[in-house]
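Replying to the earlier thread about multi-chain prediction with a worked example.

Input:
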Amino acid sequence: MRISELSERSGVAVATIKYYLREGLLHPGLTLAPNRADYDDEHVRRLRLIRALIEVGGLSIASVVQTLAAVDDASVSIHDAFGVAQDALSPATPTPAPELGSTPTGSNSPTPCTDAQLEVDRWLRRRRWKVRPDAAARTELAETLAALQQFGWGHSASLFDGLADYALEQAGLEVGYLDPQQDRSSLMEQAIIGTVAFEQAYGAIRRLALEHQSYQRFGRRRSVSA
Amino acid sequence: MRISELSERSGVAVATIKYYLREGLLHPGLTLAPNRADYDDEHVRRLRLIRALIEVGGLSIASVVQTLAAVDDASVSIHDAFGVAQDALSPATPTPAPELGSTPTGSNSPTPCTDAQLEVDRWLRRRRWKVRPDAAARTELAETLAALQQFGWGHSASLFDGLADYALEQAGLEVGYLDPQQDRSSLMEQAIIGTVAFEQAYGAIRRLALEHQSYQRFGRRRSVSA
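Result:
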């Protein structure tokens, strides 16, 4: 099919498709003539995956490139490709005032994350979870622990025990749902979309549940439609 | 204190503080002379909150402004201010190829979210959760449902029932932890940081749990240190 049909079938603008081709997110079509290429169902499928990673997962183009490279490289194990997708979901680490690109001044300023990082690492060892020493989620978790400590939410990683029990059970269900007999591409796609979408789903559901509970506790006299 | 001391105590660069002052995130100091202002502990405290919202929550400057306006406006109820913070965490809705600002072509292209949105709304009614009809998390959840359906993860919002049972319990604990007797600012700060940080924490823990479960299922023969 022509690029215009690919655009129509995928719902992705032609200009955006061309951008993905230039950035290497989408493999080139079959060249029929200069400035004329033929695209097929694999392109539609790949565009669907790219859009889901960007729209649902909020991934940057660079993270999508990394994730797709792991999906496409048959020498990367399922487990390792999964790790790449998980890292892609972690916000880029230490964000020094991103809007200005400046770094905090003062070498005396507190470094809240060092203690929290050690505590998160100890906590993971205690739980005997097998995770890479450099998994991006470790740092992310340490940052949230430091913030919770600062604002009076308690002072140890044991805050996370309830979340971890539940997350382990849920992750077991998700990983168990994947059928390793299906072809590698389908398996990877499903694993990655599950990683991305269930995380967003839980975040959204959590906020809805907080709103409901806050209504029960603080808002009963106000009118809110169900 | 001078702005240089405020920078040192908060760990936020002077240029960044000036930017926050211009954008109205931080209230002005007391003017002592032209180009010389005096800052106090309230400024340190506010900077701590701003940094946590940006670094831990990943909020945009615009979302921080909105959230702080609700925190500071004593006429906004705790419940409503909570809602503002929850909306701030939802990614801005329909992202039409953000890297180009272009919109998808083709009015015939599928609109996956309409059916999913109706289903999410029905599902919330069935659960009798009191949430605003325009809560941002509704749309976000519909988008994730559409993505999960597309990639073979099942076809109804009942996928979310387990997550919702757990989220409701967890949200009840969080809301119950807040002490409504403390002053409004402290209560709001704690509520908002809890909303932001526990969401990030769950996301990070979930990814660590997925990595562990994926190791158990797909990676046992590879060497991964604990």
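The radius of gyration of chain B is 22 Å.

Feel free to reuse this layout for your own posts.
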